[in-house]
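Hey, quick one: can you model this chain's 3D structure?
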Amino acid sequence: MKKILIRTNFDEKIGLGHIMRMFYFASYLKKKKFIIYLALDRNINKFSNFLRLKFSFCNIIYIYDKTKFNNQLEDANKIKKIVNGFNITHIIIDDYRINKTWEKFFFKKQKIIVFSDLDNKKHLCDFIIDSRWLGKFTHSRYKGNLPKVTKKLLGPKYAIINHNLKKTIKNKKFIITFYLGGGGNFNMIKNTIISLSKLINEKKYKNISIYLIVGPTIVNFKKKNLKKKHIRVIKNSYDISKILQKTSFFVGVSSSIIYELNYLGIPSLIFPTTSNQINKDNDLEDMGFYFNMEKSNLIYSKKISQFILQIYHKYIRIKKLTKKRKIEVDNKGVERIYSIIFKNKKIFKKIIFKDPNYNSISIVRDNLVNYYLNCRNLKSNRDNSVNRKLIKKIDHYLWWFLNNFKHYYFAKNNKIIIFLSHKLIKRENYFIGSWFKTFEKVSILDILKVLNWQLKNMKKKYRWLAVIKKSNKLVFKINTYLKFKKINPIYDSKSINFLVNHYKIKNKSNYYFLEK
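Sure thing. Here's the predicted structure for all 516 residues.
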């Protein structure tokens, strides 16, 4: 019978991700008749009952009594006595503090299995398991940081989630779940919850409920202003699977919980609270997460609460967007890991996607919401815009669902090179429009093609108005070529005033006001 030692830790500063991942993995190994030893730093009173009950099938060993973890060498020597004393055959490590300095004591004596999501550390191990998705870079990680013999189990195929999660649970209520992980600072989301609660009361939404999951190590939590009928506070919950199954929309950290959110197909607004939770937009979109923002955006609580209500009103549209995910997590990650390590099964092939097929001129869909913003925020585009400021994600998300503009893109060689949009101001009988380039190269001929298409395909009975910075001589020449003319302020001050007010222009002398 194989004996396994798991080296991990759980305390006030460490989230639930590591300990819960090890619980699910250990539970599976127990079914396979393994004897399991769980090595943790110290016995902390407020967590002892949870650990004793959750890991009742394990032999829990606390390494430190009056002292604490100081360095890897000291820790490895303590573990070495345990390994030798119990004839351990496999060591599983899920601890950011440990690398090759610790592992060299056991490598080639015991099988070393490392769970990590940090590819910048050197390890001496037989297997490394990292379920993080980083697009085309997923399978090329850890180069130069591992021995040649190390087998790499990389990507969401190896994500470990609760095997008992059910996708089919339906709920009559629209449940918005807030979660900061096992810990976190409640002040980050407090004002958003209060603001959302006020909107729910003011607009009398009877079928919306707010679930707030308060982790066991959260700080600054106070129940003041949360005693409402539509707010349910769930405290000290270590396993939130049953709550997630009821959730309509999730607001919280982009920690390891994203794998369960992906599995359940729950639309989400996520944000990182640690550096290892930061991901690129397109990698999160592959996983079905189209709404993500920096932690700094959390101060805009009223805007976030307004955005959440937009999600409620457009939920069918949002649900369809979430279903477009390229990566689908299942509940078989632990089985795959077991079969490769203990049954010598082959590692799964790399995931390869075909490039998206972008047509010449097409309508912009919701899956481009972040790429649209990233292009709009390019310095070259901002320099030629009335608004030169970087647009925040929460402002963009709100605008995306509230504005009445028609958005299009122009693609060439299967790459989007221009975004364009227009809007009919019916009460004034005006068309106004805009365009900006992407990260790709664009020629004057491309711009002319796009603008000619726009002018020819809209209703001809309406006038077009345009605003161009006088410093932007190229675009002025292009519009002149397209037969736009300067608006005469003597005869048509109304049109100029409209443009000034619409675009919030402070100094009219810096702009050309044109019509066609």
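One thing worth noting: The two ends are 83 Å apart (CA to CA).
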